[in-house]
Amino acid sequence: MPASNAITILDALIIGSGFSGIYLLHKLRDELKLDAKIFEAESDIGGTWNNNRYPGARVDCPVPLYAYSSPKVWESWTWTELYPSQKEIKAYFDHVDGVWEIRKDCVFNSRVNEATFDECVARWTIRTTDGKVTMAKYLLVAVGFASKSYLPEWEGLDLFEGVVYHSAHWPKDAEVDVKGKKIAVIGTGSTGVQIFQEWAKVADEATIFQRTPNLCLPMRQEKLDADQQVKEKVDYVDYLAQCATTFAGLEYQVTPTNTFDAGEEEREAFWESLYQSGGFRFWQNNYQDFISNLEANQAAYSFWARKTRARIQDPKKQDLLAPLVPPHPFGAKRPSLEQDFYEQFNKPNVHIVDTESNPIVDVTPTGIATTDGKVHEVDIIAVATGFDAVTGGLLSLGLKDVNGVGLDERWKDGMSTYLGMAVSGFPNMFLPYSLQAPTAFANGPTLIELQGDWIASIITKMEKENIRSVTATPDAASAWNNEVNTIANMTLLPLAKSWYMGSNIPGKPVQSLNYVGGLPTYRERCAKALDEDFFGFAKA
Ligand code: N01
């Protein structure tokens, strides 16, 4: 790096070293031979898998799908579980670094707080909180969907005398020993479920604070055999390519018939097979009208509730965890995968507090106070209240358009992109794994590679044709925005309050943050921009 007051000049600056930032560095540096670097706010690579190290953290897409498709990476790597833990994924990133030499081009502890584009020189100027200035032709914002945590405004958290951590800020080296302790987990998203499933096995008393039930599906975890993986690798290239053609980049597709086309017995048998196979099949392999027809969705919900209630002994806990009336359409809020979450509630020392009926008021020095006047005394609290998902991280970077207007200001009443990767007024800036793309509805690495390849292609084309800058046109952004919202409105997604719609954050504009048209259509739309001479972009 240059002296502290010098300006660093790059071809491409990538913000973030998670799955997408690493892929982009590899593509741009190793294939396009650009001078590219990653700025990473944390002290190591891994993105969400570096930050989210709370107890029980693990992925809920199976390997080898949840990994890069490059043979160079997978031929020398062996997984131990079908759904690996955070620790194993972190080790996988070390392996990726060994293959692609990522860390050598990462600048760690480097937090971007301003970026402006100068049209005269067609360069971004990027500033970091340590005062460094960098100029780059291309700016790749790869901060992921979960880089800004959300903590409700509860008084007293700082006065709590026990141990309290937000799941996204778990201490690096401190193991939190819950043996002999009273623990509380606030929140029942994927994170809360994973922490509680671990802690409830060990703690003296375990209480989960639930506002909305999570409609969890059985993970059906498997230990993986190393020799078996060697044999299966012969087919990896074809297998991964085939999965990339599906709606969500998974091994299975939505079933192309409607729920009530099947008789009751056939439906039950079908749902039973999905439920028994595990993973997200009950969600993503279900009948095609599952996510668009409320009656169909409710029928599937009833099946799920019967299966889940049968695993819980106490009728009061049954009614809270798997009520007879659906709390929201299945899949309109993200379901999680669990291993033995529901069985924990059959123990006398495992409790549930309904914060829908009795919201949390504040945290006292000894526990959590709810509106019914109770203080739930605990020693340790895990706050699993999620994220200002998808856009929170992006909007905290101080990105400004060509007129100097901040992206946060531009989007205060609603967000709009072209293909989920470009924003009008922000030339040469591309956003992998961000809003208005299939982000939450696709296997992460599959989408990241699709978008990373597309970004690499558009940059290659620009370089070849001596184009200084491209920016999404307002018309293209408006058309994409319409497509994103029209498709979302054909589904049941708007009926739930969830981070999918931005409605988990008070005051955030409510709109679909994801493109729910599936990977194949998304791929076509992206290809058109390349095939039809930068369709949707203005060139300079
Ligand atoms: O966050 P969430 P998350 N009072 O927003 C509750 C991915 N992920 O960190 O549902 C009381 O889902 C809130 O209640 P409600 C995955 O995509 C993946 O769990 O709004 N409760 C909810 O229960 C996931 O979807 C894995 O009523 C309050 C919880 O906090 C995404 O990250 C693992 C509250 C927040 O749940 C986010 O998951 C972990 C309040 N004031 C995460 N405010 C994998 O397995 C919020 N809550 C890959």
Pick out its properties.
alpha/beta, FAD/NAD(P)-binding domain, 3 domains, seven-stranded mixed beta sheet, five-stranded parallel beta sheet, 16 helices, binds 3-acetylpyridine adenine dinucleotide
Describe this structure in words.
The protein has 540 residues and is of the alpha/beta class. It folds into three domains: 7-45 and 102-148 and 389-539, FAD/NAD(P)-binding domain; 149-215 and 331-386, FAD/NAD(P)-binding domain, CATH 3.50.50; 221-328, no CATH class. Helices cover 30% and strands 16% of the residues. The chain is built from 16 helices and 19 strands. The chain has helices spanning 19-31, 48-51, 71-74, 86-100, 190-199, 226-232, 236-243, 264-277, 281-284, 294-309, 315-321, 341-344, 407-410, 444-464, 474-489, 519-531, and strands at residues 7-15, 36-39, 106-107, 112-118, 123-128, 133-141, 163-166, 182-186, 205-210, 217-218, 337-338, 350-354, 360-363, 367-370, 375-377, 380-383, 429-430, 470-472, 537-539. Strands 1, 2, 3, 4, 5, 6 and 17 form a seven-stranded mixed sheet that branches. Helix 1 (19-31) packs parallel to helix 14 (444-464) and helix 14 runs parallel beside helix 16 (519-531). The longest helix has 21 residues, at 444-464. The chain is globular. The mean pLDDT is 97. It binds 3-acetylpyridine adenine dinucleotide (N01). 3-acetylpyridine adenine dinucleotide binds at residues 58-60, 146, 152, 167, 186-192, 194, 211-212, 334, 355, 360, 384-387, 499, 504.
